[in-house]
Amino acid sequence: MIDFTFQSPTKIVFGRHAEDQLAQTLKDFGFGRVLLIYGSGSIKRSGLYQRILNQLDGGSISYQELSGIRANPAVEGVYEGLKMARAFKPDALLAVGGGSVIDTAKSIAVGYYYEGDPFDFNLHKLAPKKALPIGVVLTISSAGSELSDSCVISNDALKVKQGFNNDVVRPVFAIENPELTYSVPSYQKAAGISDIMMHSLERYHSASGEYELSDDFALAVIKRTMEAGLATLKDSTDYNAHAAIMLNSSLSHNGITNIGKPKAMVVHALEHVISAYNPDITHGAGVALIYPAWAEHVYKEDVGKFARLGRALFEIKSDNDEEAAIIGIRSMKEFFRSIGMPTSFAEVGIHKEDLPNLIALATGNGTRTVGLYPRPLETKDVEEIYASLLDD
Fold first, then answer.
1. What residues does 155 pair with on adjacent strands?
2. 108 in Cβ contact with 117 (< 8 Å)
3. What are phi and psi of 148, to 5 degrees?
4. Parallel, antiparallel or unpaired: strands 173-176 and 92-97
5. Mind listing the domains of the chain with CATH numbers?
6. What CA–CA distances, in Å, run from 286 to 24, 293, 342, 343, 388?
7. pLDDT 10s per residue in the chain (392 long)?
8. What are the backbone angles phi and psi of residue 377, rounded to the nearest 5°?
């Protein structure tokens, strides 16, 4: 087990009508001025927007609004929010939505105290030291950004989608009402299930020592997400299933499933390239697409771990580790297919002529490797993984 410092300070207000506690929660933290950040029109169509405003008005909370945050959030939304925040001078940022809205809030939060371009943090030119506090009303179970230290932003001009990790961007509270996710379209729910699974799959596949409890945590989160996820797709009003998925979203990305071990988010790195190249690709769909191809390419480097995964998730009885590993990878691909996730590049609009650009973006024109475990991926590895997705 490696040395570590673990921090998960976010207060979770969980349950039916949890959003009715928004005003009191803001007051408890001493927040009287907030910049309200949200996406398109979904929170207005659902009625949540008006309930949020009622809470703010009823609690005498001053607010301004930043709307229109897109999926795969772009740095332009951050720039707009920074301009508003510097004029309004809020006590906190209130993100109502999912990962894209929350990550936009995080970038605004660190940019508020920085004179340069906030995308500098995503390019790892420097680390943030301070951030505005962030509160969340979660509307989709997926990214886990409501409890994470991660902030991923896209720069379309650079064709770069990249994240940074820092505890200063962990939200101070997250209001989580599973009923708010009932109306999420099935495809988005499925992509969210895939994203939740991948946050713990990536951590599970990072280097482990003996007696690694975090691996058990990861396998449990993945298995329960698969089970509850199928139930949410079958019944859009199954409260317990939606509640499990919402909680798993938070716990899969707050660090508990890699506590005491490093993490290497190699599938995320490979996916960020394709959704930066084409922002219309849903991130959860992208990781579901990439994972089996990556796993088939590297499983022999750690056959035992892939075999354990297959046995734990799919009840594979084979005593042969390689056979169990292969069956497990194929079963995972079939699970993703069964919930409507893509299994080939053609399904997300990527073709053979796009591969040179994708490979160049992933490897910095051949100047860097991707990932750490079970081994770094050289340019040839990236080329082979991407090429394997051209035909299903």
1. 160
2. no
3. -90, 170
4. unpaired
5. 11-180 (3.40.50.1970), 184-387 (1.20.1090.10)
6. 38, 12, 8, 9, 14
7. 888 888 889 999 999 999 999 999 999 999 999 999 999 888 999 999 999 999 999 999 999 999 999 999 999 999 999 999 999 999 999 999 999 999 999 999 999 999 999 999 999 999 999 999 999 999 999 999 999 999 999 999 999 999 999 999 999 999 999 999 999 999 999 999 999 999 999 999 999 999 999 999 999 999 999 999 999 999 999 999 999 999 999 999 999 999 999 988 999 999 999 999 999 999 999 999 999 999 999 999 999 999 999 999 999 999 999 999 999 999 999 999 999 999 999 999 999 999 999 999 999 999 999 988 899 999 999 999 999 999 75
8. -95, 120
Distance CA 285, CA 191 (A): 5
Report d(CA 299, CA 311) in Å as an integer: 15
Chain-wide mean pLDDT for the chain?
96
Strand partners, 95: 37, 136
Burial 82-114 (b: 16+ CB within 10 A, else e): bebbeeeebbbbbbbbbbbbbbbbbbbbbbbeb
Number of Cβ atoms within 10 Å of the Cβ of 76:
15
SS in 3 state form for the chain? CCCCCCCCCCEEEECCCHHHHHHHHHHHCCCCEEEEEECCCHHHHCCHHHHHHHHHHHCCCEEEEECCCCCCCEHHHHHHHHHHHHHHCCCEEEEEECHHHHHHHHHHHHHCCCCCCCHHHHCCCCCCCCCCCEEEEECCCCCCCCCCCEEEEEECCCCEEEEEECHHHCCCEEEECHHHHCCCCHHHHHHHHHHHHHHHHHHHCCCCCCCCHHHHHHHHHHHHHHHHHHHHHHCCCCHHHHHHHHHHHHHHCCCHHHCCCCCCCHHHHHHHHHHHHCCCCCHHHHHHHHHHHHHHHHHHHHHHHHHHHHHHHHCCCCCCHHHHHHHHHHHHHHHHHHCCCCCCHHHHCCCHHHHHHHHHHHHCCCCCCECCCCCCECHHHHHHHHHCCCCC
Instruction: Count Cβ atoms below 10 Å from residue 213 Cβ, excluding itself.
Output: 13
